Every structure is written in C-alpha cells, then in structure tokens.
Amino acid sequence: MQGIIHHAQFDFYGITLHRQNLTDAIALKNLFSKIKPDAVIHTAAISDANYCQQHVQESYEINVIATQTLAELCAEANIPFVFTSSDLVFDGKKGDYIETDAVNPLSKYGEQKAEVENLVLKIYPKTAVCRMPLMIGDGGGKGYLNTFLTKAKKGEQFKLFTDEFRSPLGGMSAAQGLLLAVENFKGIYHLGGKEKLSRFQLGEKIAQAFGISTSQLLPTKQSELRMAASRPADVSLNSTKAFQAGFIPFLIQDELRSITIL
Fold first, then answer.
1. Per the count of CB atoms within 10 A, which of 115, 136, 163, 164 is most buried?
2. Total structural domains in the chain?
C-alpha cells in the first residue's frame, strides 16, 4: 500500500509514503505513472472553512483542481476512485440529509466541495463521492480531538456550540467505510456516524472518555462568535444507504475508548 503526503509527518507501518504537492499536476501525473495504483482514496483537502473563506484561490487549487486531476488519472486507468466530500455542502436548515437532497453551501469550502462533486462525477461516473461529517481521531496534532485535548490539558476553557449539529464519525469507522467504498460504491454516499450530536454534546463525550472536567466546556450559540465562514445549524447526515451496503460505524464513545493520544 502506498500513500501521498505533503507537509504532514507520518510513519505508517507497511505503507510506502511519497511526498508530493497535489497541485503540481505534472509531478502528480509522473508519480501516478510510477506507482501505478490499483485504486485511489483521495482524502486530502484544505478543510478549515474559515481558512478557505479567507484563502479562496489557495483552497480552490487543492480542493477542486487537484481533485479534478486525480479523477482524470483514475478515469484514464479505469481504476476505483474514492473522493471525500463534506456535510458542509448543505445549508443546515433541516438536517438528516440524504444523498439526493439539494446542496446549498453557506461557505467557500462548501461551495468548493459541491462544485467538485459534480465535476468528478462528470469526468468519471464510477467515482465514489463520500460525504464525510465532523471527524474524531488522532489527527497528528492538528485534528479536532488533538486540539481539544491539548487545550484541556492546559486547563483552558473553550466554547462549544449547542446549536450546531453534526453526525460525528471516528477515524477507524471512516477508514472502514472508505475501504468499503473502493469496491462497492459508485456515486454519492453519506458516511455519517450513528448519532446526531451538537458540538457541546460531543465535547461532553470526549470529556467523559478522557477524564476532563466538564466545567471547562462553555455552552455557546453560533451567533455569539464571529467567524469568517458561515456555519450551518444542522448538517446531520442520513447514512442509511451506506448502512445497507455494509457500513457499520462504531458509536463515538466506543471509538474514543480506543484512542490513546495522551
């Protein structure tokens, strides 16, 4: 198995890593020809919605153009292509979204993901577009959970929304779903967790799993914080289609118990 990284520092047992900037199309094509993959799972993105709102061209290069290049390469080779999109393609007005619900993103990041979903499916209809929720796992120091735990360790208090709802998914469950998608999915699938949780409710589960005092969690409304990117209220995903195809995610508390970051 082989992987591509850019700035990140990872060392995975049994995986050959190649350091490559995905926005360099020529170098990417050369690497593709060299390693001749049997399938591609594309998870790379600039996914910080606030950053994307303030760095539109930079984020567009990786979120849209690089993804288009990979779709074209997979189409030419006629190999499985799995692309991770986002729940932020929705406006959050209703929640429990199914795959056929109309997209209406509120942020540049959501717009980029919605645009590239259509683009890759036109380029390569065999693409599996997997819309992902808020992810929980060991993100190598920069992920949501790592940031949460770092602040908690310092005794800091932090604000968590009580009015933003997602379908959070653990890293192990996400990996299982994406591997399932390689051979079984074509078109759009939702890979959400089994629970609809607010950011605050998720924080409570993390605190319980890692022995953190809930007094450090401050319930907050979205309207109380100014952010560059607009945030939808409820982008919980209905993942029945994926469940019926064999996707069985762990409950968040079970996934958290398996993580040993601290």
1. 136
2. 1
259, 192 contact by CB (below 8 A):
no
Each of the 262 residues of the chain gets a pLDDT tens digit; together they read: 666 665 666 666 566 666 677 888 999 899 999 989 999 999 999 999 999 999 999 999 999 999 999 999 999 999 999 999 999 999 999 999 999 999 999 999 999 999 999 999 999 999 999 999 999 987 655 678 888 888 888 888 888 999 999 999 999 999 999 999 999 999 999 999 999 999 999 999 999 998 888 899 999 999 888 899 999 999 999 999 999 999 999 999 998 888 765 4
What SS3 class is residue 90? coil
**Cβ-count burial of 11 within 10 angstroms (0-12 exposed, 13-18 middle, 19+ buried)?**
exposed
For residue 3, being part of any structural domain is answered with no
Token readout for 127 is 């693409």
With CA atoms as reference, report the closest residue to 158 among 214, 211, 232, 227. 214
**Domain membership flag for residue 164:** yes
194 inside domain: yes
Query: Cα torsion at 112, 102, 191, 73 (round to 10°)?
Result: -50
Note whether 18 and 5 are within 8 A (CB).
yes
Rounded distance between C-alpha atoms, residue 35 and residue 37, angstroms: 6
157: domain CATH number is: 3.40.50.720
Find all residues with CB under 8 Å of 227, minimum gap 6, and list them. Answer: 50
For residue 85, is it within any domain? yes
Identify the CA nearest to 97 among candidates 175, 182, 165.
165
- Residue 171 domain boundaries: 37-257
Query: How far apart (Å, rounded) are the C-alpha atoms in residues 220 and 117?
Result: 32
